[in-house]
Amino acid sequence: MGRLDADGQPAATLRSVMACFPTGVTVVTTRDAQGAPMGLTVNSFTSVSLEPPLVLVCIGRSTGSHDRLIASGVFTVSVLSEAQEEIARRFARQPSEGRFDGVPWSQAPSGNPLLEGATAWLDCSIEELMQAGDHTIILGRAQSCGASDTPALLFHRGALTSVKP
Known about the structure:
Layout: H1 14-18, E1 23-24, E2 26-31, E3 37-42, E4 45-49, E5 54-60, H2 66-72, E6 74-79, H3 85-92, E7 105-107, E8 113-115, E9 120-132, E10 135-147, E11 153-156, E12 159-162
Antiparallel strand pairs: 1-11, 2-3, 2-6, 4-5, 5-10, 6-9, 7-8, 9-10, 11-12
């Protein structure tokens, strides 16, 4: 990272390479030990297995939500729709207090916050944790889920956009 290429020009960094890969945008939510809703924007999310139904999310260990999310043992993933750009930005900002203020949500079967208007959602129990650099990979078993036809919000080259079917 940060090396020069054969022409003496700065080589691509991992961040600039990964910016070329469009990703979906999600908000991962849970409740803390006192029952208060908490959540954060995550684009490191993918399916792992259909049988059993497993997904993974990667959470930076330096985020304020990291330890509380792991301690909860469960999480819900709301796949944001194209109309939820402001929610993506809100749940990515610091501090984390007040992120749910004025944001409509209901309870997933686990009791975790499920953001209204999301294009899809999964309610998961934590199956396994793996340390990977400065992140924790959280493997979750989907207990319930739902989807709509609403176009999803995407992150590509540092910008939020959408894709039309």
